[in-house]
Amino acid sequence: MRPRFVILLVAVTALLAIVPIVGSPVMVQFGISTLLFAVLAQSWNIIGGFTGYPSFGNSVFYGLGVYGTAIAMAKFSLPFGVGLVCGAILAMLCALLIGLPVLRLRGQYFAIATLGLSVAMAAVFSNIEIAGANIGLILPLTRADGMFYELSLGLLVACVLCVFWISRSRFGMGLIAIREDEHAAASMGVNTTLYKTMALVLSALFTSIAGGIHAYFITFVDPASAFDSTLNVRMVIMTVFGGPGTVLGPVVGAFVLSAVYELLANWISTAAALLFGVVIVVAVIFMPRGIADLAAGIRRQGISYLLQNIRRYRL
Amino acid sequence: MLLAQIIVNGVLLGGLYGLMALGMALVWGVLNIVNLAHGAFVMLGGYIVYYLFTTLGIDPLAALPIAMALMFAFGYLLQYVVLNQIIRSAMLNTLLITFGLDVVLTYLAQLGFSADFRTIAPSYAGANFGLLGITVPVAPLAAFAIAWLLAGLTWLLLNRLPLGRAIRATAQNLVAARLYGVNPRRLYAVTFGIGAALAGASGGLYGMISHLSPYVGAPLTAKAFVIAVIGGLHNPFAVVASGLIIGIAESLAALYVGPTYANVISFGLLVLILVLRPSRALRAA
Questions:
Q1: Is A123 a member of any domain?
Q2: Are A288 and A279 contacting, i.e. CB atoms less than 8 angstroms apart?
């Protein structure tokens, strides 16, 4: 990575960090949700983008992060930090337990098995007494949006650094090998079970912390919103939009799509979701490999790459 | 007696679920697209039948073929113009674009048809007859019969007609099929159109048994997906039969453990089947 690019990234991060000081409260709240979405997309990228396993179970990890934090804080009066750790441990244990059987499945079958787990988890949590059953839990109220914002930004930076490390490490090479051809990877000596499970556990770690931060930020949790599978769909969309298997793609995807959705909602509130759908359809047709690939391609061979990109997957 | 009644209800509803899954399984098996907008197609078919019935007074069962023809044209154009552009890219892209289509169709339906619940209610909608002490409702029975009829027609098409042979050949090996003179663009569009037509038929029947709203699509997509996986992608009768399994399981679950668990049961069954017998389920793909 070129030094100029690193400086640019640091400058952007610094700019983002001073938003709570100079920006309006609305901007800070929009920032918190956008940053958390970027974390979710980036963690999905570890299992979905690098390893090639389209997980729809990340909303399970999110929900466990939400509930781990909420139960620790609301039922045992533990501090926020301890709550986050509880949620993260819960989610990582879950990733380990469900990963071993479910990661034996591939492609669409893996997708639907994990989707099934998230549906089942919502039903299970709506029957657990300590989790507030169907009614949900209320967390202690705090008005510290600045703190939540910086926390989310810190988490995003940690997550991006982790993915950067993955992209450069032997571990990451193993994951990409698994994505391209699992049998070949195994025959080259990659311990596929271990690598896949570790990718899922890492993904669960960041996802659950994002869930915990969001739970304390909105101070209310219930099963339907904690295990919402459309949230998982959004993680996938943002990652694929930005560029799966790249370091910055998912973050860019999350920022762009959040901004587009927010602008559309302000501009024409009734048809915002409709246009959001149109944006997704058009984006898939015009940049099937994501923004990151399109940017690299245009830098390499100019605007003709756009046309080539469209033609590539045509029947 | 209650148990027998519940099972009859489950079987009749399950046939309809199977019909929904049939179109999805066909498209998935041949085009390798998991169509997340399939439920939205079902919803559209339902609204077509609803408006043909309420504004033109066409009997819903007679309106079914019209809805199927319209949905075929819609599916054909959609595949030919849009989906063929990206059909060769990664699975995630097709998932994503059909999800986008689902969002678009849902909101267009909300703008065009409003969010009110609608029911297609011909005079015989509530009719039923007793058989050995069990009440058999007429509308679900008709849906059940039509589901098997359409499964049979799909089987005939796939296994006895030249078009079906071309479809199966393309599913097995696109390049070889092309060498034998199949035009894959048109063939894919036709296959997707048939899938949409089957979805449209099931939508009309669904509107008679349950109610329509712009939002019925997503849960039905999930259900159709589960059934398609359990039934495999190549035998229409197996798909409808696995619809029955899900229908019965959901009805029993609603009776014994509470209706909130209906989805858990069908997905739980699916995960169990996938994890315990992955080779069998995977071979079907």
A1: yes
A2: no
Are A60 and A146 part of one and the same domain? Answer: yes
Q: What is the extent of the structural domain holding A313?
A: 268-315
Q: Are residues A162 and A88 in the same domain?
A: yes
pLDDT digits (tens, 9 = 90+) for B77-113: 999 888 888 888 877 788 888 888 888 888 888 888 8
Residues A81 and A225 in one domain: yes
Rounded Cα–Cα distance for residues B22 and B15 (Å): 10
Q: Residues in chain A whose beta carbon is closer than 8 A to a beta carbon of chain B?
A: 48, 54, 101-102, 104-109, 111-113, 115-117, 119-120, 123, 126, 233, 236-237, 240, 244, 270-271, 273-274, 276-281, 284-285, 288-289, 310, 312-315
**Residues linked to residue B128 through DSSP beta bridges, in sequence order:** B137
Residue A50 included in any domain:
yes
| Same-domain check for residues A89 and A145 | yes
Say if residue A71 is in the same domain as residue A177.
yes
Q: Single out the residue of A313, A217, A293 nearest to residue A252, CA to CA.
A: A293
Q: Which domains does chain B have, with CATH numbers?
A: 2-283 (1.10.3470)
Q: Convert the pLDDT of each residue in A80-126 to its tens digit.
A: 888 899 999 999 999 998 888 888 887 777 877 787 787 778 777 87
* pTM across the whole model: 0.80
CA distance A33 to A302: 35
Q: Give B25 to chain A, closest Cα distance, Å.
A: 13
Rounded CA-CA distance A34/A19 in Å is: 13
* Chain B residues within an 8 Å CB radius of A278: 100, 104
| Distance of alpha carbon A94 from alpha carbon A200, whole angstroms | 10
In terms of domains, do A204 and A308 share one? no
Q: Count the domains in chain A.
A: 2
Is A257:A215 a contact under the CB 8 Å cutoff?
no
| Whether B264 and A120 lie within 8 Å, measured CB to CB | yes
Q: Within a domain: residue A23?
A: no
**Contact call for A274 and B107, based on CB within 8 A:** yes
Contact B7, B248 (CB under 8 A): yes
Q: Where are the alpha helices (DSSP H) in chain B?
A: 2-31, 38-56, 60-77, 91-113, 138-160, 162-172, 174-179, 184-209, 217-231, 236-256, 262-276, 278-283
Residue at A262 is within a domain: no
